[in-house]
TrEMBL record:
Membrane topology: Peripheral membrane protein
Family to which the UniProt record says this protein belongs: Belongs to the adaptor complexes large subunit family.
Gene Ontology terms: cellular component: AP-1 adaptor complex
Protein name: AP-1 complex subunit gamma
Subcellular location: Cytoplasmic vesicle membrane; Endomembrane system; Golgi apparatus
Keyword annotations of the record: Cytoplasmic vesicle, Golgi apparatus, Membrane, Protein transport, Transport
Domain GAE: start-end pairs: 659-774
Top-level taxon of the source organism: Eukaryota
Pfam families named in the record: Adaptin_N (PF01602), Alpha_adaptinC2 (PF02883)
Main subcellular localisation: membrane
Organism of provenance: Oncorhynchus mykiss
Gene Ontology biological-process entries: intracellular protein transport; vesicle-mediated transport
InterPro entries, per the entry: Adaptor_Complx_Large_Subunit, AP1_complex_gsu, ARM-like, ARM-type_fold, Clathrin/coatomer_adapt-like_N, Clathrin_a/b/g-adaptin_app_Ig, Clathrin_app_Ig-like_sf, GAE_dom
């Protein structure tokens, strides 16, 4: 059989291929020849064939059929064969394949070989692809080589020990005695790998971290020698002595000094020396300075040293290299919360980064700029950020607008400035404002009572100029619906529009192609609101949308029509009886968007709905769908739970004529027990007052407890707020809630209840029917 071609010839031949198909044909032909050689057990050219196979593997072609040939080369006595065999094993084998276990004995023999280069090959292979089983079997040999005086073997054994510790952490203590003298070695390769080994051990074991903290003075000494040493051609990189070793030592010092006062104190001086003496004209020096800054910020360093670190990052911002500027911005963003004043000194440089062409730098600069905003610089920073919002790419506008809203809410110097800033955002980037911003803005405007006239005027003018920004249109529609009468009452600073103009604008939004269904819903509600204060026929406008293809808009129109047909005579009755009076100030106790929880007040004629109930009437009705089929389905009205403040029975004399100790057990299941107690309201004897008492006999609290009820249409029912939404465990308390039932025809009371709660992490829902009310409760 002729001798196979050499590796160089194969590479030259493959490079002449003009197409991928031609290259594949060459590879397949050569692979066939290599397979034939392997089958004939050709020992002469096995090394050459495996080398060519590895090249094909690097090109992405399958080479798994050469795995066993690699093992044969490893078992050879020739160094050239072993070198190619070990290289092939590292490329073609891993711990997922059982074949690699066949190497264990060969590696063990080579670790004890008389030639250091063979030992080095075995250490490299074990440190590259050794499995946990191999590491357990060969850890002893690695530990012996770690103690040898041969620096060539010690540095390779240290890296191999790192791999062993990662695979089998419980073997860490085996290498502890060998680490005692590692830092005394003068060879930089051994020092480097020793620091890597110590770092791995400290990161994986708190005990090792405590043990090695005593090495801080020795590490400081090594780092000082590197800084003060003269020119050394062997280790010099761009005028800096062994920057790789310096970076490794700084990382280890960072781990050792974290949360430890003594260790931090011992390294403060050397960190200051590195920070002030390192050359910054080359990237090598910047890498060392960056690691120094990270170490200073992570340990318990002195305040002056932290200011020095932040000043270094500030100098990085002026560097022409974009990577260095990005690293500086990211690091400043991490430290701004702990060293806010020091970072503030570089505010102008950070703001200038907003003009950078690189999108990554712009994003980091934007995030850092918002982190720097406080009550003292709010006006200047908002001016810069709003200018950035005008000119930035669309991908930044949503985040920037949200950041402006949050900063303005937190640090606004005045209500007028706050509203002007919001208006600027809505008019320049309204289409990019997130959905949750609209209810937040509505809440702000509602609570700024003295600014209602100014705000509605600004929003009305903005609406005339541009209706393409949907969040702007939604907020404007809401404000006009609430405070549209201020536009025509003479309270605005400029010329007021007439009523028809305001209504025409809102009706134009309903038919505009730019309006979304949500925007049309806002406009529809605004028209209904203004119908109580303007002389207009809102019913004709609303009725058109009773057949809209949008389900929510259709149902809203139907609900409004039904409401005004039934109570149209009350539309202009009085401010206190109006269905849709102006929304009161919203009380929001969290950072979430405001929830427009409403109120229903009992009257002898009707229930008065505030606007926030009307806005969400459709969705609230759907929440009660489970109750709609009660008692035959069509004779039941679902009840919406409200937040009307409740008073005890003894307060104000509202609940009189108690019915003694009359009570009714209505539900007992899964440890939850519901009891009804009854009272009679005064002066209307047709209203029964029922108080529910929910108790819990289990060992865990029942959270998110919600009680809902439904009654036939001949009754009218009102649910007041519960005392809590948590039913305490072991009967340690109860949740109470008051129900008012109007029964003008003195019929027997029937009710279906729906219970929803979470118990031990599992949501539970149940229905119950109550038909055994005592006669005293309804007669």
């Amino acid at each position: 059989m002729p001798a196979p071609i050499r590796l160089r010839e194969l590479i030259r031949t493959i490079r002449t291929a003009r197409t991928q198909a031609e290259e594949r044909e060459m590879i397949q032909k050569e692979c066939a020849a290599i397979r034939s050689s392997f089958r004939e057990e050709d020992n002469t050219y096995r090394c050459r064939n495996v080398a060519k196979l590895l090249y094909m593997h690097m090109l992405g072609y399958p080479a798994h059929f050469g795995q066993l040939e690699c093992l044969k080369l490893i078992a050879s006595q020739k160094f050239t064969d072993k070198r190619i065999g070990y290289l092939g094993a590292m490329l073609l084998l891993d711990e997922r394949q059982d074949v690699h276990l066949l190497m264990t004995n060969c590696i063990k023999n080579d670790l004890n070989h008389s030639t250091q280069y063979v030992q080095g090959l075995a250490l490299c292979t074990l440190g590259c692809m050794g499995s946990s089983e191999m590491c357990r079997d060969l850890a002893g040999e690695v530990e012996k080589l770690l103690k040898t005086s041969n620096s060539y073997l010690r540095k390779k054994a240290a890296l191999c020990a790192v791999h062993v510790i990662r695979k089998v952490p419980e073997l860490m203590e085996m290498f502890l005695p060998a680490t005692k003298n590692l830092l005394s070695e003068k060879n930089h390769g051994v020092l480097h790998t020793s620091v890597v080994l110590l770092t791995e051990m400290c990161e994986r074991s708190p005990d090792m971290l405590l043990h090695f903290r005593k090495l801080v003075p020795q590490l400081v000494r090594i780092l000082k020698n590197l800084i003060m040493s003269g020119y050394s051609p062997e280790h010099d990189v761009s005028g800096i002595s062994d920057p790789f070793l310096q970076v490794r030592i700084l990382r280890l010092l960072r781990i050792l000094g974290r949360s430890d006062d003594d260790s931090s104190e011992a390294m403060n001086d050397i960190l200051a020396q590195v920070a002030t003496n390192t050359e910054t004209s080359k990237n090598v020096g910047n890498a060392i300075l960056y690691e120094t800054v990270l170490t200073i910020m992570d340990i318990k360093s002195e305040s002056g040293l932290r200011v020095l670190a932040i000043n270094i990052l500030g100098r990085f911002l002026l560097n022409n290299d974009k990577n260095i500027r990005y690293v500086a911005l990211t690091s400043l963003l991490k430290t701004v919360q702990t060293d806010h004043n020091a970072v503030q000194r570089h505010r102008s440089t950070i703001v200038d980064c907003l003009k950078d062409l690189d999108v990554s730098i712009k994003r980091r600069a934007m995030e850092l700029s918002f982190a720097l905003v406080n009550g003292n610089n709010i006006r200047g920073m908002m001016k810069e950020l709003l200018y950035f919002l005008d000119s930035c790419d669309p991908e930044f506008k949503a985040d920037c607008a949200s950041g402006v809203f949050l900063a303005a809410e937190k640090y606004a110097p005045s209500k007028r400035w706050h509203i002007d800033t919001i208006m600027r955002v809505l008019t320049t980037a309204g289409s990019y404002v997130r959905d949750d911003s609209v209810p937040n803005l509505i809440q702000l405007i509602t609570n700024s009572v003295e600014m209602h006239a100014y705000t509605v005027q600004r929003l009305y003018k903005a609406l005339l100029d541009d209706i393409s920004q949907q969040p702007l249109v939604q907020v404007s529609s809401w404000c006009i619906g609430e405070y549209g009468d201020l536009l025509v009452s003479g309270q605005c600073e400029e010329e007021e529009p007439i009523q028809d103009e305001v209504l025409d604008v809102l009706e134009g939004l309903l038919v505009s192609n730019l309006s979304t269904p949500v925007t049309r819903g806002y406009s529809l509600t605004a028209i209904m609101k203004l119908s109580t204060r303007f002389s207009s026929d809102a019913n004709s406008v609303v009725s058109i949308y009773g057949s809209s293809i949008d389900v929510e808009l259709q149902q809203r129109a139907v609900e409004y029509n039904a409401l005004f047909k039934k109570y149209d005579h009350m539309r202009f009755y009085s401010e206190h009886c109006c269905f849709v009076q102006i929304l009161p100030a919203l009380q929001v106790q969290s950072t979430h968007p405001p929830c427009f929880t409403g109120s229903i007040y009992t009257s002898s004629l009707f229930y008065r709905f505030n606007l926030h109930v009307l806005y969400y009437l459709v969705s609230l009705l759907f929440q009660a769908n489970d109750l709609l089929d009660l008692l035959g389905g069509n004779d039941v009205v679902p009840v919406i739970q409200t937040t009307l403040p409740t008073k005890p029975a003894s307060a104000g004399g509202e609940l009189l004529d108690l019915l003694g100790d009359l009570s009714l057990s209505t539900y007992s299941k899964n440890g939850l027990k519901i009891e009804f107690t009854f009272e009679r309201a005064n002066p209307n004897p047709n209203i029964a007052v029922i108080t529910i008492h929910a108790t819990n006999t289990t060992e865990a609290d029942m959270t998110e407890f919600v009680f809902q009820a439904a009654v036939p249409k001949t009754f009218q029912l009102q649910l007041l707020s519960p005392s809590s939404n948590i039913v305490p465990a072991l009967n340690q308390g109860s949740v109470t809630q008051v129900i008012r039932v109007l029964n003008p025809q003195k019929q027997q009371l029937r009710m279906r209840v729906k219970l929803t709660y979470t118990h031990k992490g599992s949501p539970i829902q149940d229905l119950a029917e109550v038909n055994n009310f005592p006669p005293q409760s309804w007669q």
